[in-house]
Description:
The structure is a homodimer.
Chain A: E1 14-15, H1 25-31, H2 41-58, E2 64-68, H3 72-83, E3 89-94, H4 97-108, E4 112-117, H5 126-134, E5 140-144, E6 146-147, E7 152-153, H6 157-165, E8 169-173, E9 192-194, E10 208-212, H7 214-222, H8 234-241, H9 253-269, H10 271-291, E11 306-310, H11 317-328, E12 330-331, E13 333-334, E14 343-347, H12 355-371, H13 380-390
Parallel strand pairs in A: 1-12, 3-4, 3-5, 5-8, 8-9
Antiparallel strand pairs in A: 2-10, 6-7, 9-10, 11-14, 13-14
Helix pairs in contact in A: 1-9, 2-9, 5-6, 10-12, 10-13, 11-12, 12-13
Amino acid sequence: MKKSYKELSPPQRILLGPGPSNVDPRVLKAMSMPLVGHLDPYFLEIMDEVMELLRYVFKTENRLTLPISGTGSAGMEACLVNLVGEGDEVVVGVNGFFGQRMSEIVKRCGGTPIEVKEPWGRALKAESVEKALANSNARVVAVVHAETSTGVLQPLKEISKLAKKYDALFLADTVTSLGGVDLKIDQYGVDISYSGSQKCLNCPPGLSPVTLNEKTVEFVKDREGKIQSWYLDLNLIEKYWEEGRVYHHTAPISMVYALREALRIVYEDGLEKRWAQHLKACDALIKGLNAMGLEILPTENNLPSLTAVKIPEGVTDINVRKTLLNDFNIEIGGGLGELKGKIWRTGLMGINACERNVILVLEALERALRKEGFPTKAGEGPAAAMEVFKE
Amino acid sequence: MKKSYKELSPPQRILLGPGPSNVDPRVLKAMSMPLVGHLDPYFLEIMDEVMELLRYVFKTENRLTLPISGTGSAGMEACLVNLVGEGDEVVVGVNGFFGQRMSEIVKRCGGTPIEVKEPWGRALKAESVEKALANSNARVVAVVHAETSTGVLQPLKEISKLAKKYDALFLADTVTSLGGVDLKIDQYGVDISYSGSQKCLNCPPGLSPVTLNEKTVEFVKDREGKIQSWYLDLNLIEKYWEEGRVYHHTAPISMVYALREALRIVYEDGLEKRWAQHLKACDALIKGLNAMGLEILPTENNLPSLTAVKIPEGVTDINVRKTLLNDFNIEIGGGLGELKGKIWRTGLMGINACERNVILVLEALERALRKEGFPTKAGEGPAAAMEVFKE
C-alpha cells in the first residue's frame, strides 16, 4: 500500500532559541499571497521598497542594499567571496563559532585569515585588531557584531576607525543584531554587512540582507579575477536588483513578500523603539536568571537579542531543554562548538522580546531546573524580571 | 512626513512563462504555518518526508536527495562546485542559455569546460558528446535535460551510456522537467541532478532539490582539496540532512513546508499522470499555435513543460507581452540571450498544464497579435487545441 503523508500541522512553539524566532502573523499572511513573476512590474516595485526598507533598518544610504537569495550563512559567504581572492590576507575576529566560520570561508576563497582571538564569551580587543592590521597586508577586517554562539555584542566604532587607518574594508556580521540591537551602518563606519531574515526581523529564514557602500562596490569591481561564486557574485546580483533588471536567478518571490512585510512592521514600530524593547527584555531576563542563581556567560558586552546562560553544575543540558520543549512548547538553544553542554542560548528577538516571554521562559526554566535537582525558590526569577517592566 | 508602505496586494497573474508557475493554494497554506526550530523533532520528521518525496519525484533510490537552500541556480552551482576543482575538464552541453551558465560556473570552479555545441533550439548529439569525452580527461559530463531558454528536451539515455563508457559522472539539469516531464534518475543512469522548486512542482522559488548516487558521493568525498563553497558543500549539508543532524545553516523552514506540500500533491496525483497531462497540454498548445499560423522553435525534442514560440516577423515582442499582462493578467516569457526578441516562452507547468490555460493563452495571444496587425482567424487556435482535449 502507498504510504500516506499527513497534512502539515506543526506544534505551536515559542521560539526562544538562537533562531528562527516566531514570525508575525502579518508576515505569514503576506508570504502566502499569490505569486507574480520575478520581472513583473509589481514585483519590481516590491524590490525597490524592500531595498528602501532595508536601508532604513541598516541605517544606511548605501545604494546596494538587498537580500541575497539564501540564509544568513549564504550572506556571509557572499560578502567574503566578493572581497577575498587567492592569496589575500583578511583579519578575522574569532571569539565564537561564527567568527570561526568566517575564517573557514576566507580559506575556501583562497585567502589567509589572520585570526584575532579572544576567549568565547569576550569581545575582541581593538589593540589586538590593530596589531594584526599593522603586521599584515590585510585589506579586509571581519568581525561578528552579534555573536549568536556566545551572546557577546562586539563594539564596532573603534575597530571601524582602525580599518580606515590601515586602509582596510570593515565587514560586520549583523545576523543577530539587525532590527533588534543598536546598529548604524553609516555612522559606525561599517563598509559591508550581511544579516539574516529570521532573527530580530521575525521573517522566516531564507534570505540574507546585505549592504555595501560605494567604496566596497568599487573594491569588488576592481578585484583581479572573477568572483569564484556565480550565484553570489554581487556584480551580477546588482544588475538584477538595480537599474537594468537583468535576469540573474529567479528571485524567491514569496520570501521577498515576507521580508517586505517584516521590514514594514519594524518601520511602523520604529527602529529605536525596537532597540529599547530588546534592551529591556534582556535586562529583565538577566535579572530573573540571577535571582534564580544562574549566571550569564559574558562578563561585559552582552548581546540584548541573545543571552548565553551558564548551565549549572550537575544539571543535564538536554533534560532541561526537553522539559521546556515538551511541557511548555518553548525552544531554547544549546551551546555550539566548545560551548556545547556548557550554556543555553535564550533569544528574545523582535516580537519575542516582550514581558510575557521573559516571565514564561523563567518560570519554565525554574520548573525544569527543579526537576533536575537544582534548587530555585518558586517565583523569584519571574518576580525579579517583572520589576524591570514596572520601571 | 514618513513614507507609508501599503499592504501587499499582488495582482492575480496566470503565470505561463518560464517560471515561477502558479502555486497551489494548499502549498501557500502550508507555507504560512507557524515556524518550528530547524532542529525541532517535528522538523526533523518533515525533513525525512521531504527526502522520501523527492526520491519519489526523481524516481531514485539515492540516499542523498534533498533541497539546497537556494534557487535552482544555487543547485547548479552546488552540483558543479562539489564535482569540479582546479584544472578539471568537464564536458558541457551548450545548446542554450543554461548550458552556457554551466560552462561559466565550471570556469569559476577553476575547471575547463569542453563545450559540445548545437544551435539553440536543437538537442545535443550523442556522437559530439562522445568525441569530447574521447578527446579529453573529463570525469564529468553535464547537460540540461529541459532547456528553459529554447524549449528543447534533451534525451538522456545515450549520453548516460557514454558517460559510463568513459568513466565520467553524468550531471543533468532537471529544473524545468522535475515533476512534469518523463524523468527517471536511476533508470536513465543520471549520477547527479539539480532542479528547482518553482516550475512543474508549483512551489515558490527558493529551494533546489538535488540528488546524487553513492558513486558521486564518493567522488565528492575523495576529491583533492576543499570544496570552494562552504554554503554549498555537500559533505556538510549531508551531515545536517542525514544521520547526525549537525547544524550547518538554518534551514528555510517555511520553504521546506511549502516544498513538502507541493511534493505531496504530486505524490497524490501520481507522477506518470502528471507527465501525461503535460504532454497533452503541450500538444494542444502547439496544435493551437500552428492553427494560428505560429511556429515553435524546436523541430524535434520539444519540451512538454515549456514551448518556445517564434515571434512572427513584424510583430513587436514587448507589445504582445504587455497586452497579455495588462489585458489578461497572463505572463509569458521573452527570449534569453541570442533568442531575445525572437521567441516567446510559454510554460504549462504542474497545475498550469490544463485545458483552461491552453485555451486562454491562445485566445489572448490571438487578440494581442491582431492588435499588432498579424492576421489570425478568430477562434482557430483555441478550437484546434480543444480537439486535443476531446481525445
